[in-house]
């Protein structure tokens, strides 16, 4: 009985801590506040707890930003590992009203600090069954791999993930911090559909980001866990551990092939992936 009471007490404390962290983060989002370091009272070293905070924050964001329509995958390539000092992967939710097509304009006064990451964005063509053996938060089964997840890919596009890192001090950054704050996902900008995408070697494409016509960073799609399908397989397995699944029509931003590039206000950023497409983002000064 005592053990049961202690367990219940611990669960109650965890629920309170989760709610408090999610409430604080929601206030940060609404204020577009700069958060250089994470307050100790909302910190955790536990990955699963961080995802619970993410889930709670998502519920607060949905009324204004729309429902869940997919996921982003963070910390998947050497350039990102070097930039952040962290290794993943980790995932975050994409919300419907934060998905843009081909060309978009966002205002500089609506972001704490805007960065862009160049990614292959996959569309799921059918509900992905939960991997066997992922009960009780553990993946005991074989799970998905690059080959077994491939039939669930209905489309691949080039894209930008729009990142708002809130001015974080990367020397103090932790993976749970990133997870709790919805993976810093501020939006997804998708290139026009490419009918020939399936003929491309998605693991062997060159990409670049340019600001006002000048290339500032280049990368290679194979740097993202070897292939974007590996990233998708990881996500399906990790979601299974959390009692979630990918649904038909969801998009998955599979991870950046380049380090995040912070866009100067007043500039135009263009992302290109060889043979797949390009996107254009104008970062407008407020009028």
| Structural domain tally | 1
Q: How many helical stretches?
A: 6
CATH hierarchy class name: Alpha Beta
Number of strands: 13
CATH topology type: Fumarylacetoacetate hydrolase, domain 2
State the order of secondary-structure elements, H for helix, E for strand. Answer: HHEHEEEEHEHEEEHEEEE
If you average the pLDDT, what whole number results? 92
Measured between the Cα atoms of the first and last residue, the distance is 64 Å
Shape: globular
Largest sheet: 8 strands, mixed
Structural class: alpha+beta
CATH superfamily: Fumarylacetoacetase-like, C-terminal domain
Residue share in β-strands: 25-35%
Radius of gyration: 19 Å
Low-confidence stretches: 12-16
- The helix fraction, in percent, is 25-40%
What CATH architecture do you see? Alpha-Beta Complex
What does this structure look like?
Strands 1, 2, 3, 5, 6, 7, 10 and 11 form an eight-stranded mixed β-sheet that branches. A five-stranded mixed β-sheet has the order 4-13-12-8-9, with no helix packed on it. The chain is 28% helix and 30% strand. It has a single domain, classed as Alpha-Beta Complex (Fumarylacetoacetate hydrolase, domain 2). With 287 residues, the chain is α+β, with helices and mostly antiparallel strands. Helix 1 packs across helix 2.
């Amino acid at each position: 009985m005592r053990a049961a009471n202690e367990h219940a007490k611990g669960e109650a404390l965890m629920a309170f801590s989760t709610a408090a962290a999610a409430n604080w983060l929601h206030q940060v989002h609404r204020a577009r506040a700069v958060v250089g370091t994470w307050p100790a009272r909302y910190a955790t070293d536990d990955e699963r707890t961080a995802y619970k905070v993410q889930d709670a924050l998502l519920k607060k964001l949905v009324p204004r930003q729309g429902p869940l329509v997919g996921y982003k995958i963070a910390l998947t390539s050497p350039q990102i590992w070097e930039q952040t000092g962290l290794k993943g992967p980790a995932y975050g939710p994409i919300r419907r009203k934060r998905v843009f097509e081909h060309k978009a304009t966002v205002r500089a006064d609506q972001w704490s600090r805007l960065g862009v990451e160049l990614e292959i964005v996959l569309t799921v063509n059918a509900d992905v069954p939960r991997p066997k053996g992922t009960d009780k938060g553990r993946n005991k089964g074989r799970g998905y791999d690059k080959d077994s997840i491939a039939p669930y890919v209905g489309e691949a596009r080039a894209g930008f993930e729009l990142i708002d890192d809130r001015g974080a001090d990367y020397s103090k950054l932790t993976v749970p911090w990133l997870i709790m704050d919805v993976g810093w996902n501020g939006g997804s900008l998708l290139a026009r559909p490419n009918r020939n995408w399936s003929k491309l070697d998605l693991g062997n494409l060159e990409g670049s980001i340019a600001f006002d016509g000048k290339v500032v960073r280049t990368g290679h799609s194979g740097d993202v866990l070897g292939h974007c399908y590996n990233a998708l397989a990881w996500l399906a397995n990790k979601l299974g551990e959390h009692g979630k699944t990918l649904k038909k029509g969801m998009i998955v931003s599979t991870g950046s092939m380049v380090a995040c590039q912070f866009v100067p206000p007043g500039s135009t950023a263009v992302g290109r992936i060889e043979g797949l497409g390009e996107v254009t983002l104008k970062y407008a000064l407020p009028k």
